[in-house]
Amino acid sequence: MANAPKRPFHTASDAEIKRGEVSDVYFARTVQILTHRGDRKRVKAEVYLKSLPEDWPWGILAGVEEAAALLDGVPVDVWAMDEGTLFEPYQPVLRIEGTYVEWAQYETALLGLLCQASGIATKAARCKKAAGDRQVISFGARRMHPTLAPMIERNAFVGGCDGVAVTKSAELIDADPMGTIPHSLVLMVGDTVEALKAFHEVVDAKVRRVALVDTLQDEKFEAIRVAEALGRDLYAVRLDTPSSRRGDFYRILEEVRWELDLRGFSHVKILASGGVDEYEILTLNPIVDGYGVGTAIANAPVLNFALDIMEIEGRPMAKRGKWSGAKEVYRRRGAPRETVVLPAGKQPAAGAGGGVWDPLLKPLVAGGRIVRDLPPPRTVREFVLDQLSRVPLETLRRQGLRKDF
Fold this sequence. Notes:
Oligomer: single chain
Number of helices: 15
Shape: elongated
Structural class: alpha/beta
């Protein structure tokens, strides 16, 4: 009989991460060398990036709560932007200060927490900005390692998604999971209408009735059939049409809308999923009422944050290509993209740009203890959506986008 693997899932445990064991080996060797030399210098280091993926003009910071948990108990002082803050390149999002040999082994994990979470939150924010008032649900957990599903969907939610599909993820954001029916139910029952009737008979009435209409037959005729079967009880139809059958997805959706309206089913909404991203959303908005976004969010490009020493024992010191000296970031209140970066200790000149300038880097950890109340995911999401409301849709543009956008 084959031996069972020593570790059934190839992931680090919470305890291993907390002990600093998820670390590039050169940090361990650096600590070994500096300890041998008796080097106890205090340093200040900053986390920021020079550019965002695909020339995005802004990002959404996420992973701060996990970063705080990582550094809780480590003898450092940390300042960070609030989770959910909209930021741009060359703006430090976090500053850490302490004796280098006491925290160096946490750099790898710290960056990993911020880079992936922020990438997911940013992509979700872009999709939600594109969708406007239309619903966006995170459907992408199946594209990633299952141990990451709660992290992925939590950050998709704080980035702006209206809901998540995975039960465990929904627990993390204190919400009910959202979803329709899978193709497998239709296949097992053998007919779209019969599958929907079974769902209607068995599942709690508080769950909206949404019919998946692309499993076996033409989407238009399936949509008509399920609408006639459930009438006012049918909330929406969802099209997840595979690319091999799709053709012009917009025209298929448009046809379904026409046929439903013609028969008095204007109350039935249309949901789209399957390879959808912010650019597809912008194209489909005239017809679609909501979206399920999977791979585009779950597999969002990570944000390439780097952590670099900026001061050693109070003296400005940084590698070439980096601006030495600790910095502060200020934002004009109510204007998420009017931001200045200044040397630490300096403030925007009186009257600069008018209004009040708020510091974005705030105490997070002091002497190894978390000193900031960390808001729940729903509060972070509201903060993100407020900022997005002040960001022009134009910031989603990419060259060659279809239609008139």
